[in-house]
UniProtKB/TrEMBL annotation:
UniProt KW keywords: Metal-binding, NADP, Oxidoreductase, Zinc
Bilayer-spanning residue ranges: none
Molecular function via GO: mRNA 3'-UTR AU-rich region binding; NADPH binding; oxidoreductase activity, acting on the CH-OH group of donors, NAD or NADP as acceptor; quinone reductase (NADPH) activity; zinc ion binding
Superkingdom, natural source: Bacteria
Protein name: Quinone oxidoreductase
Amino acid sequence: MVKAVRIHQTGGPEALTYEDVSVGAPGPGEVRIRNEAIGLNFLDVYYRTGLYPSPTPLPLIPGHEGAGVVLAVGEGAGWLKPGDRVAYTGPIGAYAHERLIPADRLVKVPDEIPLQQAAAMMLKGLTAQYLLRQTFPVKKGDTILFHAAAGGVGLIAGQWARHLGATVIGTAGSEDKVKLALDHGYDHVINYRSENFVERVKELTGGKGVDVVYDSVGKDTFDGSLDCLRPRGMIVCFGQSSGPVPPFDLGILSRKGSLYLTRPTLFVYVAAREALESGANELFDLVAKGVIRIEVGQTYPLKDVANAHRDLEARKTTGTTVLIP
């Protein structure tokens, strides 16, 4: 038996229970790993609360991101061996000391990258990769707006977009978070608690608006995000930390300048093994070269995951949070 966190009934942070679970031998195409570090994400909150339906019947072990060491390899997964350092983003089930996982969802971690850092970057870094490199391919001369600039994805995206030659505008909810984002690639960061971000974006762009808005906040920012776009600009809604966007008249996209709207998810972008490896390799390369700094903002013991969820929802965390088994 090993320890894991399970959800028996959706609800608040108290729904997360730390208990014994059984982990068997790996089957064909599977690997058993020991997690050394587990990434915390708002996606975990969505599953805990029931906002996203559980992919399996309850009880559910949440968590999509982690890094660790291979313990045993099943038939057909011989490209891995015990002792290999690996990381992953999905499938769900990361909140555990040990777990089984399909081998084709694992990537080897370069020796120069610590496992805590790898766990902190997989879901967030690959999210930044698909947003900036695929959903709306950012190029030199573009101007972008990224909400939650001091969050885990936001800090990576700011550095990456700056590397791509964009002018990078962000929003954050405190002066400390503003300073943190400015230290991670952003040219301008708007404190949305003291400034109207729509008006400020218009000032910064000379009234033109931005080419793309990356919005993981949802309900509280959606209308304003549309007003920040230039004609034929794109809003990329990839989360909803403030709640889902209410139904709206599709014609508003036409009236505000023939705008584009998309609601992508990481797991579609990395569904193919080749796409997962390509995105991870690009991410690891930029981190190894120092183009992107991956800093763990705070750590919690896995047994204290309920406190980690409370702090995340209260926006008390900055950057990346890692759970330590």
